[in-house]
Amino acid sequence: MLFDIPCIIFAGGKSSRMGEDKALLPFGSFDTLVEFQLHNLKKIFKNIYISCKEKSKFNFEATFIEDIKTSSTYAPTLGFVSAYEYLESDKFFVISVDTPFITLFVIKELLSADKDTNDATIAKLNGSIQPMCGIYHRSLEKKFSQMLQDDNHKLGLLLKNSNTDYVEFKEEKPFLNLNHPHEYQEALNILNS
Fold first, then answer.
1. More confident residue, 69 or 11
2. pLDDT band, residue 19 (cuts 50/70/90)
3. Does residue 75 register a pLDDT over 90?
4. Are 162 and 143 in contact (CB under 8 A)?
5. Which of 21, 45, 93, 149 has the fewest CB atoms found within 10 Å of its own CB?
6. Which neighbouring-strand residues pair with 123?
7. How much is the average pLDDT of 6-19?
8. Mind spelling out the 3-state secondary structure of the chain?
9. Is the pLDDT score of 73 beyond 70?
10. Backbone φ, ψ for residue 123 (5° rounding)
11. CA 132 to CA 120: how far, in whole Å?
């Protein structure tokens, strides 16, 4: 059974630590990391969107949410503001393009912990929050707009000052984050083993 909540893959980052656009790195049998994510998440969610600066850099079919053009910011904040504008739903699930090993177990745990009274329900790995893996509610729309206006992009601070529930996880692999070339290599090794 597929989940109704919209899922947004955030793929609009600068990838400065990687040295090239991580969303476009080849991964497994896929031409790009974002297509790998899309393929896997399609088995879990009915509707998947890709948050990005420019959809023209992708050469495959998908539903893209392009960042609003009023800002040159390379922060998830802009993607959130654009997502709230684009979608009509009260909440959505977000995942960063560079966490390719996210599991159905993690997603189910977050969805079952989420309550309508929450502003957000976010994953925590061994005590450390994972702001790009969780559910964000419409109730945060104004706060995100304000953050963008103030050029403040601290998601952790927003979550701390909102009605956020955290779900604690112990297994590290689903949260493996590909920021540097060595982490990309490590992920390819895991995939091939």
1. 11
2. confident
3. no
4. yes
5. 149
6. 130, 167
7. 87
8. CCECCCEEEECCCCCCCCCCCHHHCCECCECCHHHHHHHHHCCCECCEEEEECCHHHCCCCCEEEECCCCCCCCCHHHHHHHHHHHCCCCEEEEEECCCCCCCHHHHHHHHHHCCCCCCEEEEEECCEEEEEEEEEEHHHHHHHHHHHHCCCCCHHHHHHCCCEEEEEECCCHHHCCCCCHHHHHHHHHHHHC
9. no
10. -75, 145
11. 11
Residue appearing with tokens 């656009």: 21
Here the tokens at position 83 are 């997502």
pTM to 2 decimal places: 0.95
Q: Which two tokens stand for residue 113?
A: 């912990």
CB 92 within 8 A of CB 83: yes
Tokens of 97: 């393009």
* Tokens encoding 153: 């992009």
